[in-house]
Amino acid sequence: MNLKGNYKHTLTACYTGYVTQAIVNNFAPLLFLTFQKSWNIPLDRIALLVAINFGTQLVVDFLSAKFVDKIGYRVSIVAAHVFSAIGLAGLGFLPGLFADPYVGLVLAIVLYAIGGGILEVLVSPIVEACPTEQKSASMSLLHSFYCWGHVTVVLVTTLFFFVFGIDNWKILACVWAIVPLANAFVFTQVPIATLVEGGGMSIVELIKTRAFWILALIMVCAGAAEQGMSQWSSAFAEAGLHVPKMIGDLAGPCFFAAMMGLSRVFYSKFSERVNLKKFMMASCVLCVLSYTLACLSPLPVLSLLGCGLCGLSVGILWPGTFSISAASCATGGTALFALLALAGDLGCASGPTLVGMVSEWAGNNLKVGLLAAIVFPLILIAGLAMSGAKKN
């Protein structure tokens, strides 16, 4: 198959890049309790792993925005996949190289987070730069691939554990590393166009505007509300609801991701008929209700339903914030979206960290920790009310 000269292959590689990011962000959380039991790592230190992942991506986002153009898109995107592959495989062997296995986990996560951070910066502009028709449809499909990648991670991981046993998780970590490694080769072959960026406000100009800080607050809460449930749903189902791990993973993170993907596909299909701000407001209300149902329901089946509804509620929050930004701060340019990505990663780190720390404080009670995450959609509602966006 000739990959050169065909931008359809470039799009496919970009979609796979988002699958890689889904693997990077969602494989390790399926093993949180395994890490805890195998190496006696307390929940607050497990929660710190999430913060390290998204915190590293946040730093890389900032650095990439400054240096990617100098290094070049191709070199950067290939490097992103190589870092991701090394980090994922490293989950399987690096903990055994240190007296404290936690050090090895941190090193592996930092490596694949570097890759994830570069992917977050580069994949969208590469898709935007492709000389193809229906760019908006391609971008909508791109964002949904993170969700479908998340679903695939959960399904394949659950099936692997069912057939081969969870004790062989280190082998699976190496298997997952094949995805970014293969896609790195693809990106050495496919054509890559460079996005020509227009002018816009500078970072200094942005941080002096009230609208930017409201948008940044919305983005932080969007990331926190999404990842607060996403990163802990597997452990919550297993330890908090006492359901078998296979059932918990399917009805927790897998259900969550599928519903989040459906929400994004729905909006991409009907965006012209939907008032985005009202849709996001309603989604925030549903988010509060879903967290409440998951944490306070006396029946595990209703709690798992709450996990899925949470995915449905948060699906629009991240991409919707970018659309609101375009309406509220039309001259923000590239700097606006780069800083919003940083804010989103900050939320992705702070949400799960808050859940883990509150859970540890409450005596390893994940229900209490997840209930604390309700603060994020509540703040998001206030931020939307203060924002200046009027329509889609």
At a glance:
With 392 residues, this protein is an all-alpha fold. The chain has two domains: 1-196, MFS general substrate transporter like domains (Growth Hormone, Chain: A, Up-down Bundle); 198-392, Growth Hormone, Chain: A, CATH 1.20.1250. The protein is built from 17 helices and no strands.
What is this structure's SSE topology?
Elements: H1 7-26, H2 32-39, H3 43-71, H4 73-93, H5 101-129, H6 135-164, H7 169-189, H8 203-207, H9 210-230, H10 233-240, H11 245-270, H12 276-296, H13 300-314, H14 317-328, H15 333-361, H16 366-372, H17 375-386
Helix pairs in contact: 1-5, 1-6, 1-7, 3-5, 3-15, 4-5, 4-7, 6-11, 9-13, 9-14, 9-15, 9-17, 10-11, 11-13, 12-13, 12-14, 12-16, 12-17, 15-16
Mean pLDDT: 85
Structural class: mainly alpha
* N-to-C SSE string, H for helix and E for strand: HHHHHHHHHHHHHHHHH
What is the overall shape? globular
Describe it.
The structure is a single chain. The chain has 392 residues and is mostly helical. The protein folds into two domains: 1-196, MFS general substrate transporter like domains (Growth Hormone, Chain: A), CATH 1.20.1250; 198-392, MFS general substrate transporter like domains (Growth Hormone, Chain: A, Up-down Bundle), CATH 1.20.1250. Helix content is 80%, strand content 0%. It has helices at 7-26, 32-39, 43-71, 73-93, 101-129, 135-164, 169-189, 203-207, 210-230, 233-240, 245-270, 276-296, 300-314, 317-328, 333-361, 366-372, 375-386. Helix 10 (233-240) runs antiparallel to helix 11. The protein starts with 6 loop residues before the first helix and ends in a 6-residue tail after the last helix.
